[in-house]
Amino acid sequence: MAQSAPAPGSSRPSAPGPVGPWAETGVMFAGVLLLVDGILGVVKGIAGIASDEVYTRINDYTFKFGITAWGWIHLVLGVILVVVGWSILKGAAWAWGVGIGLAALNLIANFVWLPYQPVWAIISVAIDVFVIWALCAGRPKPVI
Fold first, then answer.
1. Are 141 and 93 in contact (CB under 8 A)?
2. How far apart are the C-alpha atoms of 122 and 144, rounded to whole Å?
3. Positive or negative, the Cα torsion across 33, 119, 117, 61?
4. Amino acid 8: pLDDT
5. Cβ(99)–Cβ(85) under 8 Å?
6. Distance CA 83, CA 85 (A)
7. pTM above 0.90, yes or no
């Protein structure tokens, strides 16, 4: 039986349609950005662990950690971001929610780390904001 057109002034409930090309491209780009942000995190972490001379020393800061502690934070987050970014590119449905959560966590860590390396932290925050938007705008494909 054919479905009739809705009466004038009424609307048909929208059925979930396919994800548009912009959202699909954004999700793929978000996966790549998570990989890049993770690699940057690993580099930030290694630099912080290897030498205390790489980053600016902050004398009186509320969220003061040692440079080595920041190095380990960025290293661990970076490795996890690389794994999740790769999983998003492979199409793993679980990686979408985890990617959003980790990008938010990485955003907070970089915001708190802002006084140590402002430019690098702002770039990472911008990447994380885009990743969160792209993963929220797109939908994971059903695994069936």
1. yes
2. 39
3. negative
4. 60
5. yes
6. 6
7. no
> Is the Cα torsion angle 30, 35, 39, 41 positive or negative in sign?
positive
> Is the Cα dihedral 51, 53, 56, 62 positive or negative?
positive
Joined together, the tokens standing for residue 41 give 């995190």
Give CA–CA dist 136/94, Å, rounded. 13
| Spatial distance between the Cα atoms of 32 and 85, rounded to a whole number of angstroms | 6
Mean pLDDT of 53-69: 66
Distance CA 112, CA 28 (A): 28
Instruction: Please report, as a single letter, which amino acid is at residue 122.
Output: I
CA distances 105 to 4, 16, 78, 90, Å, are: 48, 30, 11, 22
Distance, CA of 37 to CA of 125 (rounded, Å): 10
